[in-house]
Inverse folding.
């Protein structure tokens, strides 16, 4: 399989260490589709990538809830779209060649996901920073910040 994937770079770091680490992990997982492989290994890797995406998107949405991000519903819609594309790929992969699977993963990560980080994810960062700043100034952070307080605290160190 000939597979070129966009490499992780500081250009796509949103400045929230926990989220940046997850984004980087997704790129690392996608990079494992390069080189020679067999159908079983590729399908297992695709299943792992799909599960990791579910976890990442859930944690990112919890952070946005905790920080009262006003664009949450629109962002959730984008996440649902990405999950649907990835699950469709997982379902169809059994009938695809390894090169076709690699091309789809390349499109999802190089195209959709990369651009999503640069546009949609960068958009919620000011809300995370504001919530982290407010939480650090107040001993009594609002109760609805409790669930995302750990990620907000991480954001404040960014």
């Amino acid at each position: 399989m000939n597979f070129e994937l966009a490499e992780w770079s500081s250009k796509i770091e949103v400045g929230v260490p926990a989220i940046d680490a997850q984004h980087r992990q997704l790129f690392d997982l996608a990079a494992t589709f390069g080189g020679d492989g067999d159908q079983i290994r590729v399908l297992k890797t695709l299943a792992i990538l799909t599960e990791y995406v579910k976890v990442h998107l859930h944690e990112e949405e919890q952070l946005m809830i905790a920080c009262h991000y006003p664009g949450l519903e629109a962002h959730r819609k984008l996440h649902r779209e990405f999950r649907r594309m990835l699950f469709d790929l997982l379902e169809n992969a059994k009938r695809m060649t390894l090169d076709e699977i690699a091309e789809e993963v390349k499109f999802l990560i190089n195209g959709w996901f990369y651009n999503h980080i640069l546009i949609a994810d960068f958009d919620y960062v000011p809300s995370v920073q504001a919530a982290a700043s407010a939480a650090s100034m107040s001993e009594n952070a609002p109760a609805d910040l409790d669930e995302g307080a750990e990620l907000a605290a991480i954001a404040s160190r960014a």
